[in-house]
Design goal:
Layout: E1 3-5, H1 11-23, H2 28-35, E2 41-47, H3 53-66, H4 87-97, E3 102-107, E4 120-124, E5 127-129, H5 141-152, H6 167-184, H7 186-189
Domain JmjC: 1-152
Subcellular location: Cytoplasm; Nucleus
EC number: 1.14.11.65
């Protein structure tokens, strides 16, 4: 988080942000960080374990049906980003599916790492600028490849249809670099 713009002289907005942080299931240390340290909170994140993705997807489809919405085959309630799980929906998700996430308030200067395949949502508390970077760690190639496969089934007009992570290219170049290093050191490797 590189910038948080807080309007001056709007005490009611500060109270609203505090209520949002509290309703967002933030812990007491985070709340104190805002109220006592006067740090600038920019965003409230809810991050869920990747293993719970299918349960969350099923839950969102169920809620959509209850509200009379369609669930087209070439759309995905998670990738569409058409839902925000407020306190009542998060509570219901936990009660009905046993899924509970983590609430993180990102203050000015904070970094938030989201594990590969982890469903998440963000609520901006003030005007803010975040710098985001996707990366593929060796431990999460499997999850990234799985996400790429999910994106393929979205409609061609969907914003996530394209393969943004380029996992196959990452794997190709990693193997190419490894083979290049081995070839460059081939003579030293063949010595007894």
């Amino acid at each position: 988080m590189v910038y948080v713009g807080i309007p001056k002289g709007q005490a009611d907005q500060e109270e609203e942000v505090l209520k949002t942080i509290q309703d967002g299931d933030s812990d007491e240390l985070t709340i104190k960080r805002f109220t006592e340290s006067q740090e600038k909170p920019g965003a409230l994140w809810h991050i869920y374990a990747a293993k719970d993705t299918e349960k969350i997807r099923e839950f969102l489809k169920k809620v959509a049906e209850e509200q009379g919405q369609e669930n087209p085959v070439d759309h995905d309630p998670i990738h569409d980003q058409s839902w925000y799980l407020d306190r009542s929906l998060r509570k219901r998700l936990h009660q009905e599916y046993g899924v509970q996430g983590w609430a993180i308030v990102q203050f000015l200067g904070d970094v938030v790492f989201i594990p590969a395949g982890a469903p998440h949502q963000v609520h901006n508390l003030y005007s803010c600028i975040k710098v985001a970077e996707d990366f593929v760690s060796p431990e999460h190639v499997k999850h990234c490849f799985w996400l790429t496969q999910e994106f393929r089934y979205l409609s061609h007009t969907h914003t996530n249809h394209e393969d943004k992570l380029q996992v196959k290219n990452v794997i190709y170049h990693a193997v190419k670099d490894a083979v290049g290093i081995l070839r460059a050191n081939e003579s030293s490797l063949s010595r007894p």
